[in-house]
Amino acid sequence: MPSEFRFIVFTPHEAAQALVKFCQKSGRKLPIGTVVGADPVGGVAGEAPPTGLLRLLPDSGVEIKVKFEPQEVVGALLLFALDRKIPMPRDSEKVLESIRNRFALRIGYYPLEGGAAGKPETAKAPGK
After folding, report:
1. Residue 124 within any structural domain of the chain
2. Helix/strand/coil (H/E/C) assignment for every residue in 96-123
3. For residues 39 and 17, what is the distance between their CA atoms, to the nearest angstrom?
4. Is residue 126 part of a domain?
5. Is pLDDT of 123 > 80?
6. Which residues have CB under 8 Å from 19's CB, separation 6+?
7. Fewer Cβ atoms within 10 Å of its own Cβ: the N or the C terminal residue of the chain?
8. Tally of CB atoms within 10 A around 101
Protein backbone atom coordinates (compact mmCIF):
# COMPACT_ATOMS: atom_id res chain seq x y z
CA MET A 1 0.00 0.00 0.00
CA PRO A 2 1.41 3.46 -0.84
CA SER A 3 2.66 5.88 1.79
CA GLU A 4 1.17 9.34 2.13
CA PHE A 5 2.87 12.63 2.96
CA ARG A 6 1.46 16.10 3.26
CA PHE A 7 2.59 19.42 4.64
CA ILE A 8 0.57 21.91 6.66
CA VAL A 9 2.30 25.29 6.47
CA PHE A 10 1.36 28.00 8.98
CA THR A 11 1.59 31.76 8.46
CA PRO A 12 3.53 33.75 11.10
CA HIS A 13 0.20 35.07 12.39
CA GLU A 14 -1.31 31.56 12.68
CA ALA A 15 1.82 30.26 14.41
CA ALA A 16 1.70 33.18 16.84
CA GLN A 17 -1.98 32.50 17.61
CA ALA A 18 -1.12 28.83 18.19
CA LEU A 19 1.75 29.63 20.58
CA VAL A 20 -0.32 32.14 22.58
CA LYS A 21 -3.17 29.63 22.98
CA PHE A 22 -0.64 26.94 23.92
CA CYS A 23 0.67 29.23 26.68
CA GLN A 24 -2.85 29.92 27.94
CA LYS A 25 -3.66 26.20 28.10
CA SER A 26 -0.32 25.18 29.66
CA GLY A 27 -0.14 28.05 32.15
CA ARG A 28 3.06 29.47 30.70
CA LYS A 29 3.28 33.22 31.36
CA LEU A 30 3.99 35.60 28.49
CA PRO A 31 5.19 39.20 28.76
CA ILE A 32 2.46 41.80 28.23
CA GLY A 33 2.50 43.20 24.72
CA THR A 34 1.02 43.06 21.25
CA VAL A 35 1.72 39.82 19.41
CA VAL A 36 3.67 40.59 16.23
CA GLY A 37 4.30 37.09 14.84
CA ALA A 38 6.19 33.83 15.26
CA ASP A 39 9.25 32.63 13.39
CA PRO A 40 11.11 29.33 13.12
CA VAL A 41 14.83 29.25 13.88
CA GLY A 42 16.63 26.49 11.96
CA GLY A 43 14.77 23.36 10.98
CA VAL A 44 15.39 23.19 7.26
CA ALA A 45 14.56 19.68 5.98
CA GLY A 46 17.18 17.19 7.09
CA GLU A 47 18.29 19.26 10.09
CA ALA A 48 17.10 19.25 13.69
CA PRO A 49 13.54 20.60 14.11
CA PRO A 50 13.26 24.37 14.44
CA THR A 51 12.82 26.20 17.70
CA GLY A 52 10.23 28.94 17.77
CA LEU A 53 10.39 32.64 18.52
CA LEU A 54 7.19 34.45 19.46
CA ARG A 55 7.64 38.17 18.86
CA LEU A 56 5.84 40.61 21.17
CA LEU A 57 5.84 44.42 21.17
CA PRO A 58 5.27 45.93 24.63
CA ASP A 59 4.43 49.59 25.26
CA SER A 60 8.15 50.34 25.63
CA GLY A 61 8.50 49.79 21.86
CA VAL A 62 11.38 47.31 22.17
CA GLU A 63 10.44 43.93 20.65
CA ILE A 64 10.64 40.92 22.96
CA LYS A 65 11.30 37.40 21.64
CA VAL A 66 10.10 34.40 23.63
CA LYS A 67 11.74 31.06 22.77
CA PHE A 68 9.84 27.77 22.40
CA GLU A 69 11.30 24.29 22.10
CA PRO A 70 10.33 22.18 19.06
CA GLN A 71 8.02 19.93 21.14
CA GLU A 72 6.12 23.01 22.37
CA VAL A 73 5.73 24.31 18.81
CA VAL A 74 4.43 20.93 17.61
CA GLY A 75 1.92 20.82 20.47
CA ALA A 76 0.78 24.36 19.73
CA LEU A 77 0.36 23.73 16.00
CA LEU A 78 -1.51 20.46 16.57
CA LEU A 79 -3.93 22.20 18.96
CA PHE A 80 -4.39 24.98 16.40
CA ALA A 81 -5.12 22.45 13.64
CA LEU A 82 -7.54 20.44 15.78
CA ASP A 83 -9.41 23.60 16.86
CA ARG A 84 -9.93 24.42 13.18
CA LYS A 85 -10.94 20.85 12.31
CA ILE A 86 -7.96 20.30 10.01
CA PRO A 87 -7.82 16.52 9.49
CA MET A 88 -4.85 14.96 11.25
CA PRO A 89 -4.36 11.18 11.08
CA ARG A 90 -3.86 9.94 14.64
CA ASP A 91 -1.39 7.20 13.70
CA SER A 92 0.80 9.41 11.54
CA GLU A 93 4.31 10.68 12.05
CA LYS A 94 4.37 14.45 12.63
CA VAL A 95 7.64 16.27 11.95
CA LEU A 96 8.24 19.99 12.49
CA GLU A 97 10.14 21.76 9.71
CA SER A 98 10.76 25.25 8.43
CA ILE A 99 9.65 26.04 4.87
CA ARG A 100 10.26 29.54 3.49
CA ASN A 101 10.65 30.90 7.03
CA ARG A 102 7.31 29.44 8.14
CA PHE A 103 6.50 26.57 10.46
CA ALA A 104 5.38 23.42 8.69
CA LEU A 105 4.14 20.07 9.96
CA ARG A 106 5.08 17.18 7.71
CA ILE A 107 2.50 14.46 8.16
CA GLY A 108 3.58 10.97 7.15
CA TYR A 109 1.33 7.95 6.99
CA TYR A 110 3.04 4.60 6.53
CA PRO A 111 0.62 1.68 6.18
CA LEU A 112 1.78 -1.70 7.38
CA GLU A 113 1.17 -4.93 5.57
CA GLY A 114 -2.55 -5.62 5.85
CA GLY A 115 -3.52 -1.94 5.69
CA ALA A 116 -3.01 -0.95 9.34
CA ALA A 117 -1.39 2.40 10.06
CA GLY A 118 2.19 2.58 11.22
CA LYS A 119 5.14 4.86 11.69
CA PRO A 120 8.47 4.46 9.87
CA GLU A 121 10.14 2.64 12.73
CA THR A 122 7.38 -0.01 12.77
CA ALA A 123 6.58 -0.24 9.08
CA LYS A 124 7.86 -3.30 7.22
CA ALA A 125 10.55 -2.79 4.65
CA PRO A 126 9.46 -3.35 1.03
CA GLY A 127 9.81 -6.93 -0.13
CA LYS A 128 9.89 -8.45 3.37
Report:
1. no
2. EEEECCEEEEEEEEEECCCCCEECCCCC
3. 12
4. no
5. no
6. 38, 52, 54, 68, 72, 73, 76
7. C
8. 10
Q: What does the pLDDT look like over 75-91, one tens digit per residue?
A: 999 999 999 999 887 77
d(CA 54, CA 35): 8
* Mean of pLDDT values over 95-117: 81
CA-wise closest residue to 64 among 52, 73, 72, 56? 56
Give the domain extent around 87: 4-118
Contact call for residues 106 and 95 (beta carbons, < 8 A): yes
Tell whether pTM > 0.85: no
Q: What share of the chain is helix, strand, coil (3-state, %, to 5)?
A: 25, 35, 40
Q: Is 77 a domain residue? A: yes
Burial degree of 44 (CB within 10 A; 0-12, 13-18, 19+): exposed
Lowest mean pLDDT among 15-19, 57-61, 113-117: 113-117
Is residue 29 a part of any domain in this protein? yes
Domains contained in the chain, number: 1
